Amino acid sequence: MNICVIGTGYVGLVTGCVFSDLGNEVYCVDNNPEKIAMLERGEMPIYEPGLEELVKRNVDDKRLFFTQDLRKSVERSDVVFIAVGTPPKPNGDPDMSFVSAAANEIAAGLNRYKVIVNKSTVPVGTGNLVREIIEKNRPNDVNFDVVSNPEFLREGSAIKDTLEPDRIVIGAPNQVVAMKLLELYAPLERPMLITDVASAEMIKYASNAFLATKISFSNAIANICEAVGADIVQVIKGMGSDSRIGPAFLNAGLGYGGSCFPKDSSALAQTAEKHGYDFTLLKAVMEVNREQPKRFLNRLRTELGGTFEGKSVGVLGLAFKPNTDDMRDAKSVDIITDLLSEGASISAYDPIAMENTRKIFPHIRYTKNAYEAAHGMDALLIVTEWNEFKLLDMERIKSVMKTPLLFDGRNIYDPAKLRKIGFNYHCIGRTTATLLSK
Ligand code: UGA
Question: Which residues line ligand 1 (CB under 6 A)?
């Protein structure tokens, strides 16, 4: 099949690569000339394990093409995916201007029947919006259908998630159209769910909001654990072993970040509000998430004698999660902003995300490794749980710090071991573990 994918962000680029790897001819379109030039040179605009090799293989085999020419790509294709960004506007609503612009341009290239697929995370009703724009702007009466096919890939494991999704959701106006997408996805041999368009759009938001709810629920329980002397790690194990609950997305820490959960939760709450429903449950989820880094910093401030003024703080991990260089809504940004505003100086290290962090904080100190970041510090914070931090020589870390104060925002260390080494060790929701290890 000939496929056009509009937008070469995480979703578009990975989707395009995977479809071309399955033997389709794929045109990946972006209106950013620098991005297209980079991709044509074989350079990746994002960090994603395995992506560069996948792009190279399919470009070499002449199945994958990068272009700015949206109209020609649409003309050549049977299926057109819209995978452009829907960044949040100041009021929390997603900005739909890129989706609308893509629909307008698709209309111009509608030379024969095509299936238009929304892969961007878009509010319920966007299928209709895209249909109306194309109907209004198509040059003739050529037929088309609009399908919703939400994406569930995670940054850092995007290729695996696309090749082996738990389910493929296809929201189509009728069975015949759904079959076209079924055919495309058939080689993956994964469960497929066919729904109407609005339900597919809602499945995406409901899934992300529910995962965010799991995380905030865990963080709220962790906060109570701290107060009552329980250990969240054991509590999660106990809860997660119930097959009705499941262990995934219950890790307590500094809360969720990234380009999806914060934006999509807020957008779903807005959608609810617009339709007269006050989604207080989801609002509370967002509130817990906002408060989590603040609670962490309050505890740190207390340990540092009530002030950050003049204190040196090392920060390990800057990306919103491991295996990505993405800084969107990263907890490190909230934490560093607050520390700087209260007079602390920062030494930071991240295996991949320092270049992107420099654009946000040009004046903090960046180091070559974790040991340099810890050197001479009054406190060291774990903000993102990169694997390389789990295996650090903690004796060495302690020996280079001014004060062995360690705040582990992702619960990656064994409290007993760390206390034995001599750290004043703090983590999330593990008071008992800390006490037991005394
Ligand atoms: C998320 C969803 O997991 C994907 O299914 C979805 O396709 C994607 O959003 C999207 O809508 O595009 P992503 O944002 O890449 O994927 O990252 P996740 O791995 O889901 O992590 C999100 C945040 O939750 C991170 O900040 C992570 O640190 C945090 N998290 C995750 C926790 O705090 N605890 C956990 O137990 C799990």
Answer: 121, 151-155, 208, 211, 215, 249-251, 253, 255-258, 260-261, 320-321
CATH superfamily of 209-436: NAD(P)-binding Rossmann-like Domain (3.40.50.720)
Q: Which atom of ligand 1 is nearest to the CA of 251?
A: 36
How far is it, in rounded angstroms, from Cα 398 to Cα 376? 10
Closest residue CA from atom 3 of ligand 1: 154
Domain chopping of the chain, boundaries: 2-195, 209-436
| Residue 21 binned pLDDT confidence (cut-offs 50, 70, 90) | very high
Q: What is the mean pLDDT of the chain?
A: 95
pLDDT, position 432: 56
Q: What percent of the chain has pLDDT over 90?
A: 93
- CA torsion sign, 69 to 4 to 35 to 264? positive
The full DSSP string for 208-251 is HHHHHHHHHHHHHHHHHHHHHT-BHHHHHHHHHTSTTT-STT--
Statement: the pTM of the whole predicted model exceeds 0.90: yes
Q: What does the block give as tokens for 273?
A: 């509000």
CATH topology classification for 2-195: Rossmann fold (3.40.50)
Answer whether 2-195 and 209-436 agree in fold: yes
Query: Which position has the token pair 């949040």?
Result: 88
82 contacts: CB under 8 Å, gap ≥ 6: 6, 7, 99, 102, 103, 106, 116, 117, 118, 119, 120, 130
Asked whether the beta carbons of 374 and 400 are under 8 A apart, the reply is yes
